[in-house]
Amino acid sequence: MTTKKQEATENMYPSKAPVDTDINSQQRTQRELELKNWSEEQAHKIASAEGVELSPDHLRVIRLLREYYLEHGTVQSGRELGEMLNEDFADQGGRKFLHKLFPEGPVTQGMRLAGLSVPAYSEDEGFGTSR
Fold first, then answer.
1. Residue 98 domain-assigned?
2. Per residue in 44-74, is it b (16+ CB within 10 Å) or e — as a string?
3. What is the CB-side half-sphere exposure of residue 122 using CA atoms within 13 A?
């Protein structure tokens, strides 16, 4: 048997669907929404303005950066992304190969082309660079 107070509360807050209370899930959902506002066409336009013609390898880097963001969110430092990319492209020459693709740096320029914020300390030469 329900009380009038319970009925009033249920009427004020009807439960139509379960509420997601998992913070990690909510953050991932937010990141998914953020990532929807980007397209490869945008990346091509930005790259063209920066004098870069996107190849399949460029797009692979961009996709990796976007996937990493989706899974992990904003990183504390560009070094984390630089190490991840270096590992992933080790067979092709790692950092050296990545710098040929992205003259301004695979993290700095790659994040811009991916439509993501450049991590802290990635562009500050005084702290070292993850270019």
1. yes
2. bebbeeeebebeeebbebbebbbebbeeeee
3. 25
Place of tokens 């914020």: 117
Average pLDDT, the chain: 81
pTM, 2 dp: 0.72
- When divided into structural domains, the chain yields a total of 1
How much of the chain is helix, strand and coil, in % rounded to 5? Answer: 60, 0, 40
Question: What pLDDT digit, counting tens, does each position of 90-127 carry?
Answer: 999 999 999 999 999 999 999 999 999 888 777 645 43
**What is d(CA 93, CA 8) in angstroms, rounded to the nearest whole number?**
66
Range of the structural domain that residue 74 is part of: 56-124
